[in-house]
Design brief:
Length: 274
Amino acid sequence: MVNKKAEKLFVTAIVLYLLIIIFPFIWVGLTSLKPESEIWGSEALKIFSNNSTVEHYQELFRGNILNALKNSFIISSITTIYVTLVASCCAYAIARLKFVGKNILLAIILATSMFPQMIVVGPIYNVFVKLGWTNSYFITLPYSMITLPVAIFILVTHFAKVPKEMEESAKVDGASAIRTFIKIILPLALPGIFTAAIITFIGAWNEFLLSLTLNSNSAFHTAPVAISFLRGQFTIFWGQVTAATVIVTIPTLIIVILFQKQIISGLTSGAVKE
């Protein structure tokens, strides 16, 4: 009886916690359907509107949002492909090679992802100006810089779990190191690769500061930057901002829903010794 009560309390606590987390997203979605007059004033606290409208979405699509979504998708995709390839090679080398200071090297790689972007954005901007790379898709390079360390850290754990005997058997059968890596190692580390790729894509999709600094031309704005420019001279178009927030969140939400098993498997693999 006590266990059932404890279980009910536990489930209730989880449901309340999830509602608290989800409520801001629900509020943003409902606000995007309110007319501008109901976003402010006494009616702002109403959850549901009596005059729901899609005018904010219509105004949004008449602007720059589609081009911004295209830029975000291209930049995030290029970053994800590049980071996944480089991280796979680096992580495999760190996991398999024996050398002094391996753990220190891995700690340094992970520590680079902890630097505030405000520290590095200035030097990166100066380099981009000198090379003439501002307002271009070369922004994928600094994007890769900030997402690569975490991808390497995730993949090192997965490559370390692959039995060395499988590689030795492949060598006995005459397979080259590259063929062994592609045909045997990568498929076995697929959950980790999926996780690293998804986290990289989401990180690049949501990045704001580098995109705002390096791509000042509206033609190269990504979605988060385009949202920040939804304002007039003395006001912010909150209806369009909430509508854009819903639209920008949908791709990452779809990715998480479709690949949630791979993400959980990738993040938890190696956490418990078998």
